[in-house]
Design a protein that fits this description.
This protein is 39% helix and 23% strand. It is globular and about 45 Å long. The longest helix has 14 residues, at 164-177. It is an alpha/beta fold. The protein has helices spanning 14-26, 37-42, 67-75, 77-81, 106-114, 136-148, 164-177, and strands spanning 3-9, 31-36, 53-61, 64-65, 84-90, 121-125, 128-130, 158-160.
Amino acid sequence: MKRILIAYSTTDGQTKLICEKIKSILDDTFIVDLQSIKSIKENLELLDKSFEHVIVGASIRYGKHSYDVYDFIKNNIDFLESSSNSFFSVNVVARKPEKNTPEKNPYIKKFLTLADWTPKKLAVFAGKVDYPKYRFFDKYMIRLIMWITNGPTDISKTYEFTDWNKVEEFAHEIRKMSH
């Protein structure tokens, strides 16, 4: 059976949930390894395996992907380019129709400028604002950002913007690419 690696960086867990959904769709056709980028750094022999496709998923916090994402790409560029590959970003700005495609999303554009890697497939998914789970500072900073961007500001609530149908479509496209 062909193998797929899903490597992710998440801040609050939504990117991991998206990766788990993608894995659940691909599991019947492939052997899927789902790993955080941090765990891969501690277990580099995982990258010695042969993968048909590598998916990298990363969340945004305060306008940036984690440094770990860029470090992972820089240190493993040969591995990434040795197979079919894709990248997706999870960010709340993608809740807006005018910013929910890779071509229009500012964080995908920034990623492509900063990363020395051009994935074969790109996607962007809207994330989630989970005010009750945030620490004090994050709660009020994210509320300020939401206020500035006309987003929800009620800190007693959770707002999920992820379009799960779009995530499923992405997984099916990966399946087609990897056959």
